[in-house]
Input
Amino acid sequence: IAPIAMSISTFSLGMKISPGAETVKIGNSTAMVSRQQDTISLNWVNKTGWGLSLTGNKGMTFEELLKIAESVTSPPQEVLQVSLVPDGDLLVLRGESKDITIHLQCNSSTFMTISITRDTRISNLPAGIDVTATQTSLTLSSMQSLDVILNVKVGTNVPSPTWSYQPASEILSTDTPPPFGTITEEPSYSLRFMVSYQYTTANALIIQGNEDLSTRLRIDPPADLPEGMVTLKKAEEAVDFPVGLLLPAYFPEGTSPPPMGYKISAEKPYSISAFYSTVQVVLSPEPGITQPPDDFPGERMTIRKKQVIIGQNIIDWWIYDIHFSVISDEILMSELKLVAESMMLIGPGSGSWLGVRP
Output
């Protein structure tokens, strides 16, 4: 076998190919070929920005050298790769149990010690939900992978998760903040894990680190949609604006998000109605209308520098080519104004989708 030599630079500013130089494709990269009296060299920069140089002597054919170059892959940047399988939400009904897997891949050049703990810093689980693992302390050798099985068991008397009520003062500050975030999904429990690792480098340096994993745990079966209503996904597929981003971030105590369902109007351009237990929100495209029409009935006032019209049980305003309406017969008008105000935090400069609209 003809000897070869290879060098790798993990940082490269790129490679300038001289005019008239011989080149060849290596994957998606272009390599420059250098032919000397006794050697052939290939020099290229891969898609991760690494500079590579592969040299073989004249006893190796160019085709053989090219095959070796094409087999070279960049080492993973993470010294420990971790993932949850499956990676979506976990549904475990009361009285049942289910397994999930933490997949570990050690990419260090030496042995690595690993510990797995459940992270309770942000949220804890109620009594009756038990999580057990096949192992919580282990050692992996270089390039070894391993699956750790976690069993999640939910007791028969575990209460349903709920969204905690947040007063308007926590959401509607005097200065317009970034969007607080609307709630468009059912509440869930949070399963969070911390994977801690330690290894020693070739020069005896001890390296420590942590990787976090999390998934949402649901214990209630999916609610049935009321007749004639659709999901948020179906509603957003019918229009060219992100319905979920434009919904309220605040509701008075006693009104629990998310919406029970959505309705799509019969005629184009489609309007979307979101139905909460005490509030209805309507988003109607009206291109070219940026302020309340002169003949629109109701009391005019300003909320968050936006002109609105107040009706008996409704607040209307127009912005971004959309007619916004919030309607309720069950909450006070003062609360309905706060609901409307929470929808006005989405806008240019707030980091939202609307801030980048042409």
Remarks:
- Confidence is low (pLDDT under 50) at residues 347-358.
- The two ends are 61 Å apart (CA to CA).
- The first helix runs from residue 62 to 71.
